[in-house]
């Protein structure tokens, strides 16, 4: 099974879920295909409603997304996977900003041209960002964030969902059991939501 996974590299919850998916790949017959979405695009129509700190975060989030789209277009899926891992380790593991220095360092560690960091300040990839973002959001609707996951449903049509939002992430067979449950509920016609209040910050133990 191929699971399409849409992420914004700035989102800590998407990062935890992505590492869970790495665990799932090891214990279930599933492979992840990485796709980019943009929290900045998702929230652009309601920026005036958001606190200034969050608005600033949305502005800063555009650059890393552009770089990820450029890497996917020019170097393919495996390269995007490597870059997302390097960006996530630095942003969510070490608490660093996704600024130009971090982008260049992550690109180098992913064995990619560091010049791709220049894409962060360019609008040339913005239509590609919107197209990738639109494919994911088009499957689940705008009332969600990142991550979005889509898999083939029982009838072959995509079944997509936001999340799962989980911390700390399950590992090994526990990760597989969560995947089994997510697929079960997501594939149930008419099923829309399970939710409870979050009491922890995203973390990987």
From TrEMBL:
- Superkingdom of source: Bacteria
- What Pfam family is a match for this entry? Rv2466c-like
The record's listing under CDD domains reads: DsbA_family
Concerning InterPro entries, the annotation shows: Rv2466c-like, Thioredoxin-like_sf
Q: What is this protein called?
A: Disulfide bond formation protein DsbA
What is the scientific name of the source organism?
Answer: Streptomyces calidiresistens
């Amino acid at each position: 099974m191929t699971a399409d996974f849409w992420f914004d590299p700035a989102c800590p919850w998407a990062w935890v879920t992505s590492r869970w998916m790495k665990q799932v790949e090891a214990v279930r017959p599933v492979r992840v295909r990485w796709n980019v979405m943009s929290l900045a695009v998702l929230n652009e129509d309601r920026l005036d409603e958001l606190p200034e700190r969050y608005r600033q975060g949305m502005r800063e989030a555009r650059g890393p997304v552009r770089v990820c789209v450029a890497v996917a277009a020019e170097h393919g899926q495996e390269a995007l996977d490597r870059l997302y891992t390097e960006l996530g380790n630095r942003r969510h593991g070490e608490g660093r900003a996704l600024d130009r220095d971090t982008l260049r360092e992550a690109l180098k560690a992913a064995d990619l041209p560091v010049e791709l960091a220049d894409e962060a300040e360019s609008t040339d990839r913005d239509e590609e960002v919107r197209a990738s973002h639109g494919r994911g959001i088009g499957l689940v609707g705008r009332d969600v964030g990142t991550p979005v996951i889509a898999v083939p449903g029982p009838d072959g049509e995509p079944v997509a969902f936001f999340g799962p939002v989980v911390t700390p992430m399950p590992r090994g067979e526990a990760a597989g059991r969560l995947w089994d449950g997510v697929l079960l509920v997501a594939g149930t016609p008419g099923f829309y939501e399970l939710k409870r209040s979050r009491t922890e910050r995203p973390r990987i133990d």
